[in-house]
Design brief:
Blueprint: H1 2-15, H2 19-39, H3 48-71, H4 75-89, H5 98-112, H6 120-130, H7 137-149
Helix pairs in contact: 1-2, 2-3, 2-4, 3-4, 5-6, 5-7, 6-7
């Protein structure tokens, strides 16, 4: 379970005196606590696929920050964000390559019976469920749109 991995990583980073990893894992745990509180009326704790989606969102936010820091000529802050991304990615399954993503999307389109662009939401929902944490939603969205449109 990912929760256990976070706690173990925090302990290991504290023992090895790695402040960057300690800070990044603490950020993950804080965001996880927020997500658990948001989900409270329905469930006590969010499940691993929801945690993976949360991690993907955290990575997306950091990539956006890196872009802004680079435009603002702040390479030290961009490097800090990149370090946090590296820590977060350790808890995600390996990302699909372009060919694997294309194959997964084509299979999902067949499975869902999607025929046009109006079925894009159904295909994206199936992809998020089946390949949580393994796909980049933005890249998948572009490929799905291209395949369903033409």
């Amino acid at each position: 379970m990912l929760r256990d991995q976070f706690n173990e990583a925090l302990k290991a980073a504290m023992k090895s005196k790695d402040p960057a990893t300690v800070a990044a894992v603490r950020l993950i745990l804080a965001r996880l606590k927020e997500k658990d509180i948001e989900a409270r009326p329905k469930v006590e704790f969010i499940d691993d696929p929801a945690i993976q989606a949360m991690l993907m969102q955290m990575i997306k936010q950091r990539r956006e920050s890196i872009e802004l820091y680079e435009k603002g000529n702040r390479p030290e802050l961009a490097a800090k964000e990149q370090g946090e991304i590296a820590v977060i990615e350790r808890f995600l399954p390996t990302q699909m390559t372009g060919a694997e993503l294309d194959s997964a999307i084509k299979d999902t389109i067949k499975e869902t019976g999607a025929t046009g662009i109006k079925d894009m939401g159904k295909v994206m929902a199936a992809l998020r469920t089946k390949y949580a944490g393994q796909i980049d939603p933005a890249a998948a969205s572009q490929t799905v749109k291209k395949l369903l449109a033409g």
